[in-house]
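call fold target=Ammonium transporter
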Amino acid sequence: MSYSHIGAPVEFNGTDDVLGGNPMVENLNQWYQAGDQAFILVSAILVLMMVPGIAFLYSGLARRKSALSMLWVVMMSFSVVAFQWFFWGFSLAFSPNAGNPIIGDMFHFGLQRVWGAPSVGSPLIPGLLYSFYQMMFCAVTAALTIGAVAERGRVIPAMVFVFFWATLVYCPLAYWVWNPNGWGYVYGVLDYAGGVPVEIGSGMSALAYSWVLGRRNEKMMMNFRPHNISLITLGTILLMVGWLGFNGGSSFGANLRAAMACWNSILTGMFAAMTWCLLDYRLAKKWSMVGWCSGTISGLVAATPASGFLDPWASILLGIVAGVACNFATKIKFLIKIDDSLDVFAEHGVGGIVGLIFNGFFGSQTIIALDGVNAGLAGGFLDGNYVVMGYQIAMILAASAWAFCVSAIIAKIIDLIPGLKLRASEEAELLGMDDDQHGEFSYDYVEVRRDFLAWSPQRDEPAQEGEVVIEPQHGIHEMATMTARSQSSSDGPAPQQEKPPVADPNKRD
């Protein structure tokens, strides 16, 4: 059963304004629709699925010898965020009475006083559910950001970075636009599902981390290609499905605005994908699967701040503009000489900016009111709200500067701490992050043996006489023997290949 009036389904009249009341003597679910709560729980699970989606995407985009490292840093970043959000992240982003426009206080420290009262984000769901759903947003943003370590970054310093980045970058940005005390919220900035904290936050932070980390070995960049396009496609599909929970769930209820957000997300993503593929075809005269994936992601990024504000026709236009803008933005890293290896800035930073600008012009009061709660909320320029575009641009500039500068400072401070140097050694980069940092691989050891340079790389090609060969660290004796044999015979004919040893079935790897 739904409700027939504008506003919350039932007026909150609990015995405790903070907790909602005592669950031993009263039903704390009475003020909420069961369908709304179920929908947000499922949406949270869908958003969580985006984390392994990002892991597969980044793993496929990297070289094979660093593929597992990308899986590890993305998944471990979720572990760090889960602790940070419980510890003080939710409180810093969504405490209700901080009394300042920048960041929250410790009112909800350790998830205290987060229970059955209506959430700070919407009267449709309780604070306990809202905090869980918002944790997934922070986790996805951290996973996107940490892709900056690709192929040359040490993993433990990166996890230290994630904790402090979530505290000092993500939480303030979320507070600005989603907390009723935040300055962006007060001025009416339109950000539906995270153009500021998620997209600009991840894009600018990844750019800053890449800048501090430094460029990859120039010799290794020759003829670089993603190692597994199937993984890239799998990751993109997981992201696309999860994004429907990301954008659809940001209506905070099973309502028409959620349906519109899902429609707009698909329209924007698919038109951006077609646009990106056409732009790539004009150069290569081939139809790129990686191009389709990149275009889809750029469109969904642009839909993140805008899908709950725009009419479908405006979302189609947004997809085309986002596809063009993000495609050309991939060239920016060459101009500024920052090795944003996975194009996080080009797709997420630029895509989020495009979506926020579209909100300022095309935002519609009619679409906003579809949730049954926010009727009367001001739209964009076409609705007569002429000042909102200025606030949108001010927020874009402030959030970009904050995310880049604070992330760069955090990364540099961590890099200066003994034992926490961000960059791996040159030998480790040549050998691969999987071998150097993990001793494990995305594929079995036969795959590693097949690619000689993946486990015994040379600084020069061919190897110079007397040059030390970097031996593998993964404990396979036959590989080390082959490496030594290859080095000793470098001036003579290649040795006859021996048959591989028969594995002992009783011995585990």
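return ok
The chain has one domain: 34-437. The CA atoms of residues 273 and 295 lie 4 Å apart.
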